[in-house]
Amino acid sequence: MHLFAWFAYCIFVLSFGREPFAQTDDPNSSDTTFYRNPVFEPVLADPSVIRVDDSFYAYGTEDNWGEEGGYHLVSVLKSKDLVHWEYRRDAFDKKPDWKPKGGIWAPDVTQVEEEFWMYYSFSTWGDPNPGIGLAKSASPEGPFVDQGAVFFSEEIGVKNSIDPFYLEESGKKYLAWGSFHGLFLTELSPDGKKAVGDKVQIAGNHLEAAYIYKRNGFYYLFGSAGTCCEGANSTYRILVGRAEKLAGPYVDKSGAELLDGKSGSLVLKGSPGKHGVAGPGHNAEVITDNQGQDWLMYHGIYLSKPKLANGTNRRALFLDPLIWTEGWPSVADQVPGSGSTAAPVFGR
């Protein structure tokens, strides 16, 4: 490469963290310096990610990968760097049976002392009474042993009670949840098996997939708006608000409360074109690498291959740097990275 061209290339990468799309044929195969989205295919919808020692584990909604991998009852993936992922097993040996039918959606996994707790949704499309359950394991890879229902929608008084997110604050356990009927927060019993106390609404009817991240004295509430599962027509996008207290009120950059159905500052949206992505959303936990860079994982659908042969939405796993500007997060250009991107730094 000519010296001037090499200098221009270096400036581009240092400035934007990406090289042009055509620079690398398959950076996910062995390269540890750069990568390209998606970091796992064909499907890992509604991801949750945890770090255990020097490894990462990712979990996704029950799905049938058809001829590209078959049926999976909550896939468990393992990685050393967030880029190269290996399928390990399904989280469950058998499906929970506290509902007569439904899918196990949007697992949220957290290490709680020496155990691994998975909160999950149990629902069908249009289910009048979905619920949230809990399963526990001694290993991040499972198998997870079901503990039964934490609550049903009718019991807790919130329609479409799915998409759980577990967190701890001041020695107490909490669960955030909800899907287009408000996002809510409640305290949990010490064993995590039941909701106790009052439920508090923290966002309006335009969001689902709650995730709360604490940074520099603020609680950041991420949520997904739009449609998740219409293939190339999916409109999912990630919005955020922040608060000084866990229970809110959460507001966006303009000061509008997230309880307002039109509020939320944009973190990520779909992109058009040859390498466009539809419906990026339902982000996982924020992971910080060894150089202090934050990373956001989420699912997205390439416009060029939106579904599997069996009709399943091809919601692949994406990874992008999370950029903080004046206390507010977003990914670069607020769209999924489509070029070769400087990879996370772990263990070197």
UniProtKB/TrEMBL annotation:
Classification via Pfam families: Glyco_hydro_43 (PF04616)
Keyword terms of this UniProt record: Glycosidase, Hydrolase
InterPro entries, alphabetized: GH43_arabinanases, Glyco_hydro_43, Glyco_hydro_beta-prop_sf
Domain of life: Bacteria
Residues annotated as transmembrane: none
Pathway: Glycan metabolism; L-arabinan degradation
CDD domains: GH43_ABN-like
Family: Belongs to the glycosyl hydrolase 43 family.
Protein name stated in the entry: Family 43 glycosylhydrolase
Organism expressing this protein natively: Algoriphagus aestuariicola
